[in-house]
Design a protein that fits this description.
This protein is α/β, with parallel strands linked by helices. Helix content is 40%, strand content 23%. The longest helix is centred in the N-terminal third of the chain and has 26 residues, at 138-163. It binds flavin-adenine dinucleotide (FAD). Residues 11-17, 34-37, 42-44, 56-57, 59-60, 246-247, 279-280, 309, 358, 403-404, 433-435, 441-444, 446 line the site of flavin-adenine dinucleotide.
């Protein structure tokens, strides 16, 4: 039976925390969500300024999971709009479609490069089916998927610039989960996997990966309208959401969590809890445990790193700026830029466009710490690209996401497994979501994980 005295405290009100909150309140549990920001949604939330929503991304909703699809469509009704995105990558003066299409590779690269790339691809594909390197990394995997030439051309420098380390330092799971493969490769690979299955050599991969599944949806305020409605639903069912509330300490005796401390409006507060669901970065949550856990765990927490994103938002006097909804660049301060009207966002005043440029960086980089520098760098690059002029710009704003991408560095799995085992051993705690499981996942998977964590927690607590 749900306990009505002490609440279950959910740390973080992104998609995972909100989904956990919806599940628990639906079942009658008393729930308090603690969220550091002044709004819900986390990475999928948006910032409202002068009638416009600037989103980190922006995000689209898509899933083939019947439960998540049903819950979100019921919550959103007509506000959910079907959507088609287009993505272009500017490279060697040409626009390439993403995921990389065979047709673009054949027709847009110089002929000698195409021949060289084709031979290299075949060589790596054939030899890769026979020999495997002693230590598999994202580099060895991408060379095998694409051959040396395409790997060097399209992936090596781009990945190094975006994530701050070269593919050779990434675990192979990064390339498996992040890099979509050309269709012909998928086809050839299926043939090979089929052959390997028959020989009993197939390798199983994890189910939780980031990929586009099902139809795409948006709203006229982007994804943030979905997360707002999830928050409203929790409150309507009696749940409590504390905004501007930064969790600082998890009181735990090594077997169960007793209370959470947080800061809000300069005050230190404490809630005794019946259980907790963490959706904060798993390494940060571990470092909040008091008294501190064993040194090996603390070492593993310190070994996990995230890549940050600075978002520069621009309201401009032009109704369409980009030739596609997203564009990727290799030689600019930002690696990706999106045109929010092309994602269905309502823009005010009419006839204007809202752009969001993403600069990937670390928190000690200048782009993270120096707003005028980040704005100027983006503006200069957009002008150089002839997409706009200085006079077109009405407003510019800077937003930051410190935990945008978990970095799947070689051997990160060992550290992560240690932290997951610790949280798993607690009688009344769960850790979940993109940050809480250090997993490259999309919103619908974060929601599913939130539901599942709520189910596991209540099953444990009610034992
Ligand atoms: C640039 C970008 C684009 C993306 N585009 C898409 C897309 O189009 N479609 C899609 O499905 N997915 C997309 N994703 C993935 C999606 O954003 C995530 O999978 C999802 O939002 C993760 O939700 P979460 O709740 O697990 O984590 P988060 O959203 O990170 O939520 C964690 C929450 O914890 C809060 N928090 C952190 N520390 C504290 C603290 N100490 N105290 C209290 N609160 C704290 C944070 O403020 C945050 O709200 C994108 C991701 C990025 C980075």
């Amino acid at each position: 039976m749900p306990n009505t005295t002490q609440p279950i405290v959910i740390l973080g009100a992104g998609c995972a925390g909100l989904a956990a909150g919806m599940r628990l309140t639906e079942r009658g549990y008393r729930v308090v969500l603690l969220e550091r920001a002044d709004h819900v949604g986390g990475l999928a939330g948006g910032v409202r300024i002068n009638g416009n929503t600037y989103e980190y991304g922006p995000h689209t909703f898509h899933t083939t999971d019947p439960e998540i699809l049903n819950d979100i469509t019921s919550l959103m009704g007509d506000a959910l709009i079907p959507y088609n995105r287009t993505i272009k990558i500017k490279f060697l003066g040409n626009y390439f479609k993403f995921p990389l299409a065979i047709r673009d590779v054949l027709f847009k690269l110089p002929i000698p490069t195409v021949i060289h790339a084709g031979l290299s691809f075949l060589w790596h594909f054939v030899t890769g089916s026979i020999w495997r390197p002693k230590v598999e990394t994202s580099e060895t995997l991408l060379r095998r998927y694409y051959g040396n030439v395409l790997y060097e051309l399209f992936f090596k420098t781009y990945i190094t610039a975006v994530w701050g380390i070269p593919p050779a330092e990434f675990s192979p799971s990064f390339a498996r989960e992040r890099i979509p493969r050309m269709n012909i490769l998928e086809f050839l690979d299926k043939l090979r996997t089929h052959a390997q299955n028959r020989l009993g050599r197939a390798v199983k991969t994890d189910g939780y990966v980031e990929k586009v599944e099902g139809n795409l949806y948006t709203t006229n305020q982007g994804f943030s309208l979905i997360t707002q409605r999830m928050g409203d639903e929790i409150i309507a069912r009696g749940g409590q959401i504390e905004l501007n509330a930064t969790a600082t300490r998890i009181e735990c005796d090594g077997a169960r969590v007793w209370a959470i401390e947080y800061e809000q409006a300069g005050e230190r507060k404490r809630i005794a809890c019946r259980g907790t669901i963490n959706t904060l970065p798993i390494n940060e949550a571990l470092l909040m445990i008091q008294p501190p856990p064993a040194d090996a765990l603390v070492g593993s927490a310190r070994a996990l790193r995230f890549r940050a994103l600075v978002f520069v938002g621009l309201l401009v006097r032009k109704d369409q700026v980009l030739p596609s909804s997203f564009m990727y660049f290799r030689q600019h301060s930002f690696n990706r830029i999106s045109d929010l009207a092309q994602f269905g966002f309502h823009i005010t005043p009419p006839g204007c466009a809202l752009l969001v440029a993403e600069i990937s960086c670390d928190v000690d980089d200048r782009a993270w710490n120096d707003e005028p520098f980040a704005k100027q760098a983006v503006l200069d690059d957009l002008i150089a690209e002839k997409l706009l002029t200085r006079d077109d710009v009405i407003e510019m704003h800077v937003f930051r996401a410190q935990h945008a991408y978990p970095i799947y560095k070689l051997h990160y799995e060992d550290h992560l497994a240690r932290l997951l085992a610790f949280f798993g051993s607690l009688a009344n705690a769960e850790t979940t979501g993109r940050q809480g499981r250090f997993a490259y996942i999309n919103t619908h998977i974060a929601m599913k994980m939130g539901y599942e964590a709520a189910d596991r927690l209540t099953a444990k607590m009610d034992q």
